[in-house]
## 1
Amino acid sequence: MKRYILLIQIPAEFTKHPMAIGLYSHELKLAGRCDLVGQWSGKNAIIDFKTSRKLKKEEWIEDYFLQCTAYSIMFEELTGIETPGIVVLVSVDDYDMPQIFMKNRNLYTNKLRKIIDENTINTSTIDDTDGGVAA
């Protein structure tokens, strides 16, 4: 088992929010569990831990950034605390240090909302009386 020493600052206002925080959003109609909320390089951030057998290229992990963007929006909705930073730490087999990817959620917010919109069922077209779609 690999062990890293990472210095992640946890501001006082975050201490009431434990690691592996359960989150939800009425706006996004999503729920999830975030690994950690803290500060990275002095900025509020969602910090997510991943494991991998091989090194990752940034273009392969956009889904990680979208996931963290959702966590960021959910955390802000629940607490009122802005967390624009996204940090993904990837522990890679046979490497001594994790890969670190840092982004701003604003780069992914529009794409996340588009994906949600495209995958949301329009419940106004459901006719519950016969279990079918309204004509």
## 2
Amino acid sequence: MSSDSQPGKRKFSFCWLYKINQLENTGGVVTTKKEFFIVWCIISCVILAVIITPYVVPVSWIRSIIPQCTAKIKGGSCSLCGMTTAFYHIATGAFEKARQTNSHSIVLYVTFVINEIIIAMFILHKMLRRVYLCRY
């Protein structure tokens, strides 16, 4: 009886050698779809927290824990100055106040929401596909 037909015994392969060679050829950085998806999920979780926060946390508490922008302290402004306040205005439906606080806030908020919709659809599609494949 050969070693190939023994149950539980794995054949030796050189896959690990190929992976080491692949790492050396790319400078040690290998990006796969799975890694990209994991990073996208982590970033989307942070974005979801940013979107939900104005609905569940009072603005006074957020202002007490977030330090003032260093650009604002120096008398200038940055592209994110007023974004927290603007997101609170968007959560209450005061879109004009949000636009006045930071002119890019509505675009960023909509982009965040679209990202969350896309990742939710993507995850749902993957889950349904797994269920479908398991059934048949």
## 3
Amino acid sequence: MHLPYHESDHVLTLAYSVLTGGTRLEDVDRLRNDVPLMNGLGARLLPDPTTTGDFLRRFTEADIVALMDAINSVRPALWRGRGAGLLGEVAYLDVDGTIVPTMGELKQGMDISYKGIWGYAPLLVTLANTREVLYLVNRPGNAPSHLDAATWIDRAVDLVAPYAQRVCVRGDTDFSLTTNFDQWAQRVDFVLGTGTTNVQAKVRDVLRKIETELKGETMSGVLALVSPEFFDKLIGHAKVEDAYKYFSSTGAQPLREDTRRRFPFAGIVFEEYNATVTLSTGATETLVAAGEGVAFPIGTLDTFVTYGAPANLIETVNSIGLPMYARQLARPDGSAIEVKTEASILPVNKRPRLAVKIHSSN
């Protein structure tokens, strides 16, 4: 027995409580009053719930994160050794939120969930291959599953990526964090602001990334849709300028004509793409960010697919969507026939890693 208690006494008391079914601090008293258990532990005294609570309140969020990082710093040694076979070619990161009810009424951070349960909604990021919990983040009970998930997914990807050929992040539709998909995609920095950059080598890097991810799929070529800023830097680069200037073998005349639409270079066709869309708020959004672009294969068989949603009609409920719906509606007075058309199209890239983000950092 240590008086005052050592930190190890508090940690072991909490561990003993959890292992024997404890779910709250008050359950520590069960251990203190269990004579056979105390004899088995060889202890005459354990911290009471109040003392244990004081110990836990010493720690901040930063301390908990430091503890998780300390544990995670040991994992790579296992993944390089005996655990290498468990990771395999693809490391699967599972991300999910859960609901943990609490018996208290005034606990800090607790809130009511969408199921009407008071408590917390922790986020779990686990490595499915080895069933390891990499990160556990506590959040209020009313937090949606995706809240702050991107931050912890990034940390988990950085942790696991060096020890697997690929990292696959899995989660339900609430984790469709489209604003973060670009940063999780494969990327190549063309460094077009540096005159000595080997642009052909950058192009080959893009081609190899795409070819590696084809996995038996076929393609007829690679198209890169780039922003005006990227296109201007590309054709103005010292290693590309002559190729663009004498792009006449295909019948184009860059000095006379606008050839921004199709400029082939080293195996990729670059096309300036400056399209925008109008959002429901009325604001406009550029589809390709300034200074960036996306390269993807064309002529594939099973990579890109387009789905049509059912029309907004009673008769189409629970039916398979069609690309286009058209109906003829006769006016009650018989003076005319109105034609109503509707299409809700969703294009999907079934292999996101085949789309390589390209940009120039300078």
## 4
Amino acid sequence: MSNKPGILVVDDSRPVLVVVRTMLETFGYSADLVDSGTEALRRLHVRFEEGRPHAAAVLNHTMSPMTGLDVRRAMLANRSFSAVPVILMSTAEAAGGLSAKTRDMFSSVLEKPFAAEALRAAIDSAVAQSHGPAATDNARAQR
């Protein structure tokens, strides 16, 4: 079992999952990959029950049948993981249509394609928010 902060990554595109996992592992994080919103909620629950909650989540905006917004709303409705910070990945066009209220549901919104440093900054900020600055220092030390 890894002591690296665990990041849940949810996208229905396998290539995106692989690229994001590679980036996260390079940054010193552990990536937990799922390809649907339903599986994301199940994985959040399992990790919470195991006493190993995710430090953050990265959700794709446009998935079917459950979108990233649907997943975030379900997370917010569940006290077990409502505090998990979430980064939304979206196309520029879709991100531009998000209201300020919707954007406020997420710690960051990344427009695809995004640079590794943009993901790193968003993840480090989210993990510091949920686990404190020492967790990001720990992830950096494990790189």
